[in-house]
Each structure stands twice: as C-alpha cells, then as structure tokens.
Model the fold of this input.
Amino acid sequence: MKVSNVMSSHQAFSDVVKNCPISRKEIKKLANRHIKKKFPYTLDFIKSLSYKDHNYWFYNYLMEGHKKDGSYVAIRQQIYVVQTPDGESHYEWSSIPYNAVINPEEVAIKDESDRVEKSYIINPLQAVKTAKKTGKEPFVFDGNEMPLNVLSFWQWSSSELLGNALRGVLAEFIVASTIDVLEQPREEWDAYDLITKSGLKIEIKSSAYLQSWNQTELSKIIFGIQPTVLWDENNKRSEEAKRQADVYVFCVLAHKDKSTVNPLDLSQWEFYVLDTKVLNDKVPKQKTITLSSLLKLNPSQIKYDGLTSEINKR
Done:
C-alpha cells in the first residue's frame, strides 16, 4: 500500500489496551464475503494502536489451497477494524501482495486521510453549525464584555422589515412558524429554505407591492424560480442545475397602503403553494415568474392560518 506524506516519527501513535469491538468470528464472516472460492483460512492478530483519537486493530487474513486443476492459490488480505471517537466501529480491508510487509502506522495515516475526504471524521475546516442566539450574548474586546450584545445588533441591522433584503428572511420565518421548525436557526447557504420534520423540502419566495423607499407606483409581483446547482458538504458543485425543493411557497405582502402597511400583521400576507413538479413541467428553464403567470399554474391560494394544513397535505 502506497502512502504519501508518512510521518517520520510515530509519536502520534499509542497502544490500544481495550478489546476489539468486532469479534474475530464476525471479522472472518465479513472477510469471507469478498472471496468467491472457499479454502481453509487463518486470521492472525498483528497489533493495535491509537492514532488521532481513532483506535485500530490489525489482522492478517490468509486463505490458501489448491483449485480443481491442481494449481495453488493464496489470498492474503490486510484487515483492520477502526473505532472512531463517537464509539462507532467500522470494518475495512484491502488486498496486498502475498509477501508484503504490513505497516499498521502507515495504514492508519492513510485511513485517517481517507475518512477526512469522505467526511467520516471531523474536518477542522468543515462548515460551522449555526447556534441559536438568545440576544443576550455580549460583544467582547481583550477578554472584557462590551455594553453591546446581539440584541442591540439585531435592533440596528434588522428593523427595516419592509425592505427587499430582510423581507425574504421574514417570509421564511413566517412559514417556519407554521410547521414547528423554529428551534433550528436559519442556515444562509442551504440548498432550500426549510425542511419539515417529515422531510419535505420547501423553497420560500417573497414579493411586495410596497417598498421602504420612495415609490411612484406599486411594485410588480415577481418571484425568482431559476434552477440552481447544489454545493455539497464537501464543497463540491453538482453538475446538474435543478430546483432543489419539493414545494414552493410564494409569499406576497399584499397590502397597498403605505400609511398602514405592517409586515408583522400576518393578515396582510397572501400565500401561494405549488409543487416543484408543476414548475418543472410547465416552466422548466424559466428564471422568474410574475404573479399573473403563477396563478395560471393553479397554486393553492391561502392565508396564514391555512399554511399548516396546506403544507401537511404534501
């Protein structure tokens, strides 16, 4: 087995004293699944070690015998069990030359590298999971708390609810409140906006007749519906552009009087629910859609108090 960037020192390794979490009987059973011909075999323990909080147990697996034509066959495999920091155990194997020298330390380094690549173990540069804030979290400088907190930041940055930028986030919050998923904070770069506890993926789009700036006429109601590419957890881009959600909820702040408009008054909102399949069938490549064109696709038209039942129908 060729291993690149092998440590010159094995100071990162230590001995494992506990027993292997997978029995020898189970290891033999798993190993035999890879062998079509059944010959006598042996399973010999080599050593155990710990590397980067992972525990490894290494075995030699040797199957040898004569075929019906009299030819001799010998299959030697290196088998190892790896136990990750969460306590989960995995069985791994790789074919090696019959007379190869097994180097468990090199195998452990290669295994650890592979598991980072496959997201089996924690990548130190993986995405940061958003933690829900209370608003009381303080700003700090040189270890000292400042007379500023997250609530004061929210009040400063997020008071313009009528503006285009924040209205879309507000619409997501409004829909989320109807499907009982507010305990999980919003993720900025998710492939879709919301997911129900049953696994239904929802895309939220919002529009309004009124804006926070000076207007000479009411805004036209237009929604973005273009297919998108997906960036997975390994930061790899999907080759196919498509609509990632199962259903779209189009949210319209329908009020038309600036003197009384209030995005927090849920009776001023109208909602249109449409399965993504309809968009894919009727407007597969279209990037935007007007409200009049959307209505031609026969979406479910509801108010706030009907959102829960309408979404739960899917």
In short: The chain has two domains: 13-117, 160-312. Confidence is low (pLDDT under 50) at residues 1-11.
